[in-house]
Amino acid sequence: MPIPRRTFLKFAALGLGAAVSSQTQEAEAVQAPTGYPDSRGVLVDLTECIGCRKCEWRCNEVNGLPPRPPSDFEDKSVFERTRRTHADTFTVVNRFANAADPEKPVYVKKQCMHCQEPACASVCFVKAFTKQPSGAVTYDPSLCMGCRYCMAACPFNIPAYQYDDAFTPEVTKCTFCFERTQAEGTQPGCVEVCPVEALTYGKRSDLIELAHARIWSRPGRYVDHVYGEKEVGGTSWMYLSAAPFDQVGFRTDLGETPIPALSRGFLSMVSVVLMTWPLLCMLFRQSAKSAEKDAEGGAPEPDAREEESR
Amino acid sequence: MTDNTIAPSPWVREKVLLGMSLGEYVRSNLTLGNAVAAAILAVGLPVMAYRILYGIGPATNLSDTNPWGIWIGFDVMTGVALSAGGFAMGTAVHLFGMKAYAMFVRPAILTGFLGYIYAVTGLIFDLGRYYRLPYPMFVSLGVSSILFLVAWHVALYLTCQFVELTPAIFEWLDMPRLRRWAVRLTLGATVFGVILSTLHQSALGSLFLVMPSKVHPLWYSSYIPVLFFVSAIIAGIAMVIVESALSHTFFHEQAARSGVSRATFDRLTLGLGRAASLTLVTYFGLKLLALAHDHNWPWLFTGYGAWWAVEVFGFVLLPAILFAAGVRRGNARLVRCTALVTVVGIALNRLNLSVIAFNWNSPEQYVPHWMEVTITITLITMFILEFRFIVNRLPILHDHPRYRSHQEH
User: Fold this and answer.
1) Which of B131, B146, B181 is the best mutation test for A, with the most CBs of A within 10 A?
2) Is the pLDDT of residue A298 over 60?
3) pTM exceeds 0.95, yes or no
4) Architecture of domain A40-120+130-262
5) How far off is chain B from A166, nearest CA to CA, in Å?
6) CB within 8 A of A78, min separation 6: which ones?
């Protein structure tokens, strides 16, 4: 049976359309990321942190969050419960009991980890998030629709939402002081203000070396793990700790697979379905029609002529 | 014939007021059902306005840790699954050639079309900046997101379903020429709809593939796309059974005009029950496969494991058996009741994944705010009112006397 030209063209057009539409989607999603070799990071040494919360105060100041006097941050009662980031709080310091030395609790600063392959950026369907070459994951409120998929997808539960803003709510999170650090020699507000140098700002690759050097040079002081070196494909912020990480508020079950990779399998199936389903549909229809003809003893069905002429 | 109030034009009288004068029409609507609907809207519409004017914060129990609630878990996730009837029936009739089931196609497509409309409406209340709805389409395309795919496919599929409804609209308007054109587009729309449905039904579940640390292991699986696709077919078939049973009760005048006898209707219902049973058994197998694939057996012996068993044995395996029993005994009533159980089961599955067992390891648990529930109930009420309005006017449950609509395409 010759293939009618129109049928052929219809299939060709469908295939082409499918190829083009899925090409763009896959190209960005399936491509292995090259990474930014010069990207910056911060190494947090939890054995140094004294829980003074000056980083919280400075963060509010440099990011234009509601200004609060430094004395607000001397209140130790906030440590009673574990806090998370919120719309007006980009970073928090939490206190955890120290199993090894009850006299010295562990203080853990929490903020956006600025993932190497950020979940928030990959799930955003309006591309409001950008992984900058400097390492920062930035957010553009002028694109955001407020679906909050980024918040659901973030394995660290970092992005927060301005729920009380009725008309122009924004997602909020640590900016890694993106604007500030564009100038040479400047550091994020929290790093600058830390009185005990618990935070070290630098090239991420250097920080990884530094972290391992510290572990090796001071045996027994740290657990032999740099949190963030490999978690979910690596993060810009990394931690050294004396206590096992799962005892001081870290999730140690996140794995090393970058979150965006979890969508790729499905996305690469999309084009396959787009290309093959039209054929399957037509096969089913054709076989149904011939079965019907057989049943009617070869008599053409009433609307067969109309079908053929389409 | 003049009415003492405003006299509507003959066209309005025939097409909108069901052949009654305005006064008669208003009086015919003074029923108990309408009073209940009016009461729901009287509460629901102001609550909707409150959400828009005061924001998501005061109107919901959503938080930074639980950013998605029932507007996503029920209105979108469940709503879209239960709207798969048009896709399931269109495939059966137009592609598999099961013409006997043609009477189910139009009601199923209408259910699906309105279902998607209200899923999107529910989403609008959930979106912080709903007025940017065209952004992912035309302004800034985030193609690495599965949500991007969902957005495009739902928009395109809404269009497909509208195209599939246009023959009925043109029959209602007595426009035979346009109707002929519309009928010719139906097959194309069906094929395109099948492709789109395959992808976005599975994509809805795949949204959660990026959250292995938040979705409970019993519900998280790399098989989520397949599980969602197969269960959407089940949801579609079950909804067609439920909806047709309700339509034959509440719109029996319309259904009677279809010329389909009660015996035929029962026989076709049994056929749908057989399809539902087989699909449910397949789905049950896939659920076990997902469990085995990820070695999740130990989780069965926890509290969430018991809850998983309720869903999978009580709302998947049990209805599969009941459907089979109904078919075997020729008991259409049993098939209809089982379909209702199945619909509840689908809702339970979607809510389990996205709300109930979501963030299961977090101390902060989400329980919906009364306003969230109210808005969802209001949307369902509006869905029913709109469905009724259209079914009473357009040739949905029966052929238009002047057109052989159902057999033709």
Assistant:
1) B146
2) no
3) no
4) 2-Layer Sandwich (3.30)
5) 4
6) A53
